[in-house]
Every structure is written in C-alpha cells, then in structure tokens.
Design goal:
The protein is of the alpha/beta class. The protein folds into two domains: 102 residues, Roll (Urease, subunit C, domain 1); 329 residues, TIM Barrel, CATH 3.20.20.140. It is built from 19 helices and 17 strands. β1 and β2 form a beta hairpin. The structure holds zinc ion. The site of zinc ion (ZN) has 4 residues, from loops.
C-alpha cells in the first residue's frame, strides 16, 4: 500500500465508521429469532443492508453496529417471511386487475414469496414479477410455472396442449424461453404416456417439475420417471392402495372415472404398501403439497355458508363469480358423493401426518385463486398451517413446510428459507409464538420484504375491499 492510501486509511479510521462500525440500513433489535433448523428461540439483533440480512448478532453484542433505521421489536418473534407454495393467478384478462389485488393480500399476511402453479395470465404475472423485483410494485416474490401442460382441449384455459411426444420439446422450449421457475403438469386430458414422456424430458433438461397425475399411470412410474413434486394427496393415496394396478387398468379401459375411483382406492389403503410408497417418495426427494385447507373448504361447500366470511370483502366481483362453479357442483352431488368427499378429507389429514412421520418433505400451499371457492389468497396459507397442526404435525415442522421447504424445492435455498446472514431480508415479525400456538402466524406485527419494513396496519390499510 503506498503512503497516500495509508494516510487515507488512517484518516478514515478516525473520521469514518470504520470496519467495526459499519452502518446498516435497518436494525431489528430485541427480537427473538425462531430458528427453524433447531426450534430454538434466540434473542438476536438482525441487521439489514440493502435487500439482504447482513448480520445476525447475539443480544449482548448490541451497540456494536449502527443502522439508519432502528426498530425495537421488544421480544417479538422473527421468522423468515412465509411462502405460499401453491397459488393461482387466473380467470382471463378481465380479471387481471382483481388478481393483482392479491399481491397486497399476500404481503399483509406475511407471505413474501408465492409459487404460482399455473394459469392463463402469464404475461401479466411476469410483468408483476419484474416490477416487484425492481421495487416498482409491492408484493411477494413470484415464482411461476407459466402455463400448465395438459392434453388436447384441457380444462384450464391457457394450458399448453400435448397431443403427441413431438409437442413436448416445443412446449418445454417455450417455457425455458420465458424462463419459468418450474414445469406444472395437469391431467384433465393428458395421456399417461405423454405425462411420463414430459417428466423424463424435463429431467433431461434439468427442470423442476410438479403436478397432478393421470390415474392411468401409477405413482411409482411417476416417481421413477423423475417428478419432483406432487400437488394434492389424491395421487399419493392412489400409490398407497393395494388395488392401484387394478384401478389403473380400469382407468385405462375407461371403465372408471376419477371421482368413482376415489372411494375404491380409499377402502384399499394398505399400510405396508403406503410405507414402501413413502420410502420411494423420500428416497427420490419428492415433495408433496397436501392442500388440506382447500380440501376441507370444498368438501363442506354444501353445508357451510360463506357469505359472511370477512375475507370475501377483499375478493372482487369477478373472482366471486368464479366461485359459483364449484358451489353448483357441490349442490348437484348426491348424498353418497357428499359423504365420500368428507370421508376422503378426513383421510387426507391422516395421510399428511403419515407422510410427515415417514419424513417425506411437505410444502404448505393453499391453492388460492379464482375458481377455488372461498380459499382466499393470504389467509388460506395460515389455514393450511393450522390444518397441518390439527392433523398432528408439530408446529415447528409445519412452519418448515412454508419458507424452508419452498425454497429448497425451487433450489432457491441459497437466498431464502432461514433468518441467516446473506439471505434475502424477507421476514415476518409475530406478536406471539407460533411454536406454542400455530394460529399466532396470523398475529403479525410487521413484514419485511427485501429489506423494506412494512408496518402491518399500513399494509391492511392498503387492502381494497369491494
Ligand atoms: Zn392448484
């Protein structure tokens, strides 16, 4: 070092903050970090610089660092911001505005990342994702599959249609050109053969894939082909039934329908088959998204009156209109079908618990969005965590299914998942301890998104009611 620089350096030691006096943008002092790896409550001060956690100090080191803005958390609980690992933005271009309002609902509920599992608003979703990244728009980080892959004339608008294996590279090229964060498979008209071909092709390209599963293939075939995530528990249940091969053959021969197969599979649940299926899922590191809360909501649409739900006020008239389809379906169902659905739902709670006991990685996802009646963006993620705990999953493990597992699934764990140095500063500050009562996840004091502190009352005030 030449003399000139030595002098400058010496002057800086005297006059500037110096190496041990770095000035951070935000200091969150006197909080208790819930360590999601160990379950410990750790008195810490969290220092943020730009959009990252720069330092996590023990409380007794207080005063060692300075920040432009200091917030005294007074013993409140610090968690990584929640991830909702299954949402939808959809409903056609006329609902773009009402879908966009979900962004504030997510943030007001402490959700700092969402995994969009496919819809028909991809250009708008990509635009929001960009604007949020550039801080031109307030909302959670969006990870998206873009359009779903399905067969000819699929149920959901906007899906890419795979009729022959030749359609697969074109579809995957188009997703990679965007690029999307994962590939979402749907099974309304997709053939079993094409389904397995797609999974193998995504494996070859190194893409992350999750989806439903046509009942014309087995769960073992799907896992062996290389799927990374299973959305909903119908498909896991199929893989736990002693009669899976027989049901699969009947589905191929079109002798059975999806919902007709359900009670047959349920009654053939076999614990030894289930345990080997769980082991296969675990060994192949397949994540499962149980979506218990929406299952509960939809199973009881015939009995529960939702017209006075407080969250209904946050849904625009267009979104509310999309709820009618499933309501009509529930009302048309026979007594037997209604009973079967409720029985299935009770079983899914047990299945989620069994998967967890067998160490299969779960992800908390709400499936909120248009058409999914009364499953409201934001609050429904908290309901999902509550449903997991009700099913017997310990609160700490339920919390792990949100940010840590969501980040791990999308291979974003270098940046997200824990309150640690160098991670993105996405945090939620709770007034109560969710390890004691999972409902405390809703008791939000403050949300930090990429280092920007959002007061909960201000977030609530920004919500648009209809
Ligand atoms: Zn969904």
């Amino acid at each position: 070092m030449c003399n000139k620089y030595l002098i400058l350096w010496a002057l800086c030691l005297i006059g500037c903050a110096g190496p041990h006096q770095e000035v951070y943008d935000v200091a969150l002092i006197n909080g208790r970090v819930i360590n999601l790896e160990t379950g410990a409550l750790e008195p810490k001060d969290v220092y943020i610089k730009a959009n990252r956690i720069a330092k996590v100090n023990d409380r007794d080191q207080a005063g060692a660092a300075h920040a432009k803005e200091t917030v005294d958390l007074n013993g409140k609980y610090i968690l990584p911001g929640f991830w909702d690992n299954h949402v939808h933005f959809r409903g056609g271009d006329s609902l773009i505005g009402e879908n966009k309002e979900f962004l504030n609902l997510f943030l007001a509920n402490g959700i700092t990342s969402v995994r969009d599992a496919g819809g028909d608003l991809t250009p708008a979703v990509l635009q929001w994702k960009d604007e949020i990244e550039n801080k031109q728009l307030q909302g959670p980080t969006i990870f998206t599959s873009g359009p779903k892959l399905d067969g000819k004339n699929p149920t959901w608008a906007g899906s890419l249609e795979i009729e022959t294996p030749a359609d697969i590279p074109k579809a995957l090229d188009s997703l990679q050109a965007i690029p999307t964060d994962f590939v979402k498979l749907y099974e309304s008209t997709l053939t079993g053969e094409n389904y397995l071909h797609i999974i193998r092709a995504t494996e070859q390209r190194g893409l992350i894939t999750s989806g439903h599963m046509p009942f014309t293939v087995t769960l073992a075939e799907t896992v062996e082909a290389g799927i990374d995530g299973i959305e909903h528990l119908y498909y896991v249940m199929k893989g736990c039934a002693a009669n899976e091969a027989e049901i699969t053959a009947k589905m191929k021969a079109k002798e059975l329908g999806f919902w007709e197969a359900m009670p047959l599979l349920l009654s053939a649940y076999d614990d030894s088959v289930a345990q080997s299926t769980f082991k296969r899922l675990k060994d192949h590191r397949v994540f499962v998204v149980p979506t218990l809360h929406i299952g509960e909501t939809l199973s009881y649409l015939d009995e529960v009156d939702h017209t006075h739900d407080p969250y209904l006020n946050y849904m625009g008239p267009g979104i509310r209109k999309t709820y009618q389809g499933r309501i009509n379906g529930a009302m048309r169902a026979s007594q037997e079908q209604r009973r079967d659905r409720k029985q299935l739902q009770r079983f899914f709670g047990q299945l989620a618990k069994s998967l967890h006991s067998a160490e299969v990685a779960l992800m908390a996802g709400s499936d909120s969005g248009a058409y999914n009646s009364y499953t409201y963006p934001g609050i429904s993620l908290h309901k999902e965590l509550e449903a997991m705990v009700t099913a017997g999953i310990p609160p700490l493990d339920a919390l792990r299914t949100s940010a840590p597992n969501g980040a791990l699934f999308l291979e974003k764990d270098a940046d997200y998942g824990y309150v640690k140095e160098n991670k993105i500063a996405d945090l939620v500050i709770l007034n109560g301890n969710p390890l004691e009562r999972i409902t405390e996840t809703k008791n939000i004091h403050m949300v930090v998104k990429e280092g920007v502190v959002h007061n909960k009352m201000k977030l609530d005030a920004q919500l648009k009611s209809h």
